[in-house]
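Chapter summary example: a protein plus 2'-deoxyadenosine-5'-diphosphate.
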Amino acid sequence: MKMRKRPNILLTGTPGVGKTTLGKELAQRTGLSYVNIGDLAQEGELYDGYDEEYQCPILDEDRVVDELDDQMVDGGMIIDYHGCDLFPERWFHIVFVLRTDNTQLYTRLESRGYAGKKLQDNVQCEIFQTIYEEAMEAYSEDIVHQLTSNTPEDMDRNLEQIIQWSEQWVKDNN
Ligand code: DAT
């Protein structure tokens, strides 16, 4: 039996905007597979050097792409990462950039233990809508959508919208 085609979804945005929370719930509700790029890199040690300024390993982007390519070609994947221009454009059928108000984001990142320059830089990343602009450059503008992610109600609404979109995509492509 031929497998039904399923879409690939990218959830991106500044750290703390709610990608992981949304992505995991979405996977449960849709049966799509959720992959957190940070976790994948950690498990496979897909690193290429160390960033002294931010005190974190540097992602080996080529190996991450190689690691996931077969699964992405098969479809049905939800990818979660705080960047988006490292992935091939052909991978995604839709790109969601989650957005959070600065004050809320500050509180969320602070309670995650971020402080000093790391905290400031991440909040600034959101203020300057860096990831949204990155997404608009890396993908066709008509597949890039911003989602407000301030409250649990926002998350419920976002979930419903993505589930509906996904169901429609499956109908249209099978
Ligand atoms: P990310 O994966 O983008 O780094 P996360 O899913 O870990 O973000 O969420 C960061 C924190 O914010 C976490 O404590 C859960 C909370 N959160 C996520 N989405 C939210 C929403 N829509 N409303 C309120 N809190 C939210």
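Key point: The two ends are 13 Å apart (CA to CA).
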